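for the writeup, i need someone to sanity check this before i put it in the appendix. the sequnce is what the collaborator sent (i think, or maybe the updated version? ugh). structure was predicted straight from it, no edits. if anything looks off just tell me and ill rerun, i have time this weekend
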Amino acid sequence: MPLVTSTEMFKKAYDGGYAIGAFNVNNMEIVQGITEACQEQKAPVILQVSKGARAYANHTYLIKMVEAAVIECPDIPIVLHLDHGPDFETCKACIDGGFTSVMIDCSSRPFDENVAETKKVVEYAHAHGVVVEAELGTLAGVEDDVKVSAEDSSYTHPEEVEEFVTRTGCDSLAIAIGTSHGAYKFTPEQCTRNEQGILVPPPLRFDVLEEVSKRLPGFPIVLHGSSSVPQEFVQKINAHGGKMPDAIGIPEEELRHAAQLSVCKINIDSDIRLAITASIREYFDEHPDHFDPRQYLKPARQAVKDMVAHKLINVLGCNGKA
């Protein structure tokens, strides 16, 4: 099965009350861990590449690794998506280079500028059989080159979505309802603490999501910044020399609820990084005499695979939907 667009995936997800996992890829082990889990769970998947990943791994290497995954996992549909494309030129390079989906992120610009740049990308992408994700509202946090302070973040305004989608022709829309990029999504001051002393983040704004859904019936909605920052990984990192105090993510039960509504794509990146780092830190602690990268990257790859399988089944609900 060749690379596909997300059009059919999203239609089935919307009607079926589940979401597609969009996992960021940066190297071979991550690509393998994600796609092996999806192949075993018979789940469709979106492999997404950020501007930072292209700078780190090189566009050509990333394309070829994803093409290898398509060959090795022939039973599942795979989308290759640009995450947070900053401008038309980056989106065009990815469209010309074989991506089947791109995101143009002009959410920090004034509304009309966002519309104009998004429309320009949509026209070029659609002429080449590629779909486009756009964004309204601004998420706080840090992810690769995306850095937004809590003060500069803003929820999506539902009254703007119809005009935006109509004027741009985008195929899906990322909205801001309280998710955030990175492993430190909220400050302790924004949270409460439960009886175990663990930080509990503020709840997602499902009222915003529901209002957007009413205004855009049947239209696929995307959530960025949706890693849950599993405390088992954080604790393991800290137990083996790391320092990640107060790292906190989005509760999985809230993401599952979002997937049952109009959210068709949920982005997960930080959880992959945490799974890999926790595994490698533990391995280095337990095997200080080892120096072969294959020795510690093999369990790290398995940690990614296990984490992704958990997400597919318990959070996204897309297992068995390939």
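The longest strand covers residues 78-85. DSSP finds twelve helices and 13 strands in the chain.
thx in advance!!
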